[in-house]
Amino acid sequence: MEDARIWEFEESLWTGDAEHYRELIDDECLMVLPEEPFVFSGEQAIAAVQDTPRWSEVTFSHQQVARPQEGLIVIAYKAEAHRDDTGYVAYCTTTMRRLEHDVWRVVQHQQTVPLTKA
Fold it and tell me: How many domains is the chain partitioned into structurally?
């Protein structure tokens, strides 16, 4: 997958509806998110997203792409997301694997919220 498509794919996970999210998350996916229970399996993550309003906008910076082997992509980035009056910032990683030509699924995702200084 070309870099531009990778970032379009990732953006769609932040802004797409729950059904779109379900299509792109592998059943074996593991996630670490900054909310309890913190460690989620694929079905748990999908269920959590179904009950969460989607982001209306997200921008990425500090973007990095690695391709450690054929059919495997790892990305790292800073996300800044917004909806209504709510904003969110996290440093993230996502690992995607190719199932077949042009069919990719997320097998790992994590979000780290930066610590704020008081």
Answer: 1
